[in-house]
Amino acid sequence: MDAIKLLLADDDQLLASLLDFRLKKAGYNVKVCTDGKSVKKYLETERPDIIVSDIMMPYFSGLEITDYVRNELKLSVPIIILSSAGNEENVLSAFKLGANDFLSKPVSPAELLLRLQKELARI
Amino acid sequence: MISAPKIHTDILWDLSAFFVILAVLYFVAIFFFRSKFLKKSADTNRRKNVLAPLVSEFLFYQEEEGSKEEKKSYIQKKVEIRELIKDPINEMVLTEILLDLKKDVSGDTRKQLFKLYKDLNLELRAFEKLKSWKWQKISQAMFELTQMQVAESYDFISGFINDKRSVIRKQAEISSVTLDKDGLSYFLDTTTYQISEWQQLKILEVLSNYDDFEAPRFYRWLTSKNKHVVLFALRLIKHYDQNDSRGSIVTLIRHKNNSIKLEAINCIKQFYIVEAKPTLKAAFWRNKANVKLAILDTLAEFGDKEEILFLLDVANKESNFTVKSKALSAINSIQPEYIIPTEDIELFDEDAEEPPLNFNTPTELTADKENLPEEIQEVSEDTLPQVDIIDRMYAAMVEFVPKEIPINEQLVDQEISGVELEQLLQEKATLGCIADLPFEEEIDAAINDTDDEISVFSEEEQYEVCNSTKELSASYQSIFKSLFEKSDDDCKLLLLDEMLTLADEKDLPFLNSLTNYPNPIIKDKVAFIKKGLHERLEKPEPAEGIEDSVLEVLNEISENSYIDESQMIDDVIKKESICALKPRVAKSLKSMELCFLEDDIGANSLDLFDINFQIDATTDEFRSSVRSTETALTTEHEQALTKEEHGFFQKFLDFPTTLTDKLNG
Known about the structure:
Chain A: One of its GO terms (molecular function) is phosphorelay response regulator activity. Chain A: This is Response regulator receiver domain-containing protein. The complex is a heterodimer of chains A (123) and B (665). Chain A has helices spanning 13-25, 36-45, 62-72, 88-97, 109-122, and strands spanning 5-9, 29-33, 50-54, 79-84, 101-105. Chain A is of the alpha/beta class and 123 residues long. The longest helix of chain A is centred in the C-terminal third of the chain and has 14 residues, at 109-122. In chain A, 37% of the residues are buried. The longest helix of chain B is centred in the N-terminal third of the chain and has 51 residues, at 9-59. Classes of the chains: A alpha/beta (123), B mainly alpha (665). At the A-B interface, helix 1 and helix 5 of A face helix 1, helix 3 and helix 4 of B.
């Protein structure tokens, strides 16, 4: 069985590499993008099974990516949003646009894994 | 002719060359430093890229789950990273990575991060930095140790709390509070320097991040020699709701420092320390406007009517507009609408728009203003009685009235003259309707036109009763005296107006005592009222207050015609009387209206009319009973309220409502 394709979008390279390491260790096929433009470029050619995206990113924010995935690509792929604490308005907007779940920073990698499993189980 | 100064061309060339060289040097320097920084940044990124996966591997390595090869690889990488961090730049980069990751991760991963920091002996290097003479290195080391939660560093760092260099001192304060729960106590005990507002906020933020922080009792620091510690302690007391230092907080109202005063007042307000009211009022005049405002705000919060006089005083004496306004606002907070708007209010003829008055309203019962002298009319009409005056009178009245009013049987319904009786019978013959019974005023008017010879008592007997009343007056203190003493001039004038209608012989000594009153308006008014009262007292007064009961009786009789009417009417009389009658007296004293009623409903077969006629016919018996009752009740009378006094009290209860209605049009 193929590994689950996961798109991880975060402009913080250190955190991205840490999560990348942990997710790969958990068996995911991870693609890391550090800005919105590269995310869109990747989505033109690939279809990930699940997307984990930060809200604040260069070029296109996590909200715009969500909107792009739901309204332009018409994909029902699960989207988990990463957001800093105290950014509830953005989180609400993300939910309105079609995000499935959110995690506030600082992130617990163990919690992220559990949420991923939960979302994948829903599909 | 203006000529240009001669400049040697060589000098111009030299200057040009100099500036070109400067420009070149400038650009070279810029490029040099830029490339150096870029190189350094690239080098740091390269090192980060090397170290970050190693860090990730260390963070997520689980010893028990790993295979033998994994364990071997882990040990090799540990050796490798130790070699790498021997280079100070690598060590710095690794520290940066760990500090960055600490912000981004939580849970077990963060714990692993702290563990890794210690495993790699990075804290030892931080301790070495603490010994540096450079303030930035010391501060950085303290920050690093605090972020990585190296509890062992607490003793080293707390030593910097009183450092001369403010950057080190402030970092030491934050670090001490963060690393140890007792750090706050130690800091407040030892610091001799100022604690800035920002620093206080930072410390509060640190404290709020503690999961199980048990705040010490901060009143311990209210006695500190450092005023900044006292101020911070007050804020902490307020923040943690420590309501166990009320005395100390009240004392701090008198502190020299304004900030401490303000904070103490805030605490008083928050904790509702009502015993601080006298101190607040005493301290008020000595303070600046901001403290005054805080005091007024606090008094508005928990003040009561006792504070209104003080606040009025402030509103009158204070020159600062804001404080003045605050005082007025505080008054209205304590008692809503105590102060009514007076600025830019249009005056209009109240008589023209006055709605028709209802029967029995207090206004209707006041003295006839047309009979007043002109100057007194002006005073009484121009000075619109304000709510505060009424309230003061009401307060005085409430204070005056005893809680248990003794029954005064003698003063109810006994003054029914034959004239009234005759008048009522005539009225009945012409009107024949109970609802149209003549009112008190009409009866008065009728009495004026008749001869006084027809009376219940003979002149001699009246004189006896009068004498007994005079004896009573000597020891009797007028009800108006208490009110008069507690009122202002406007109120006194109002009160005198009321006396014209309500006062009797017993109040004459009091009026006499006012004949030399300093205020000429009041003095004149007293003379007029005295004269009016003398005139009024010559006429007997009819009974009142029965009309309502009449209708009730009628209804009941129509429903239960088989009931013994006379008995029922007697019961109603007892109920409706302001003071309950003893059965014997009640039986012998029937009001004229009631007799009229009984006649109207066909109860003339009963003894009711006979009883009234007995009053006239058997005067000896009646007089003896009255006298005996009077003697028995003389002592009680000193404390009892007469029916008139009750009426007066009732009028005052109704008066604010009536006045408010009038003011509202």
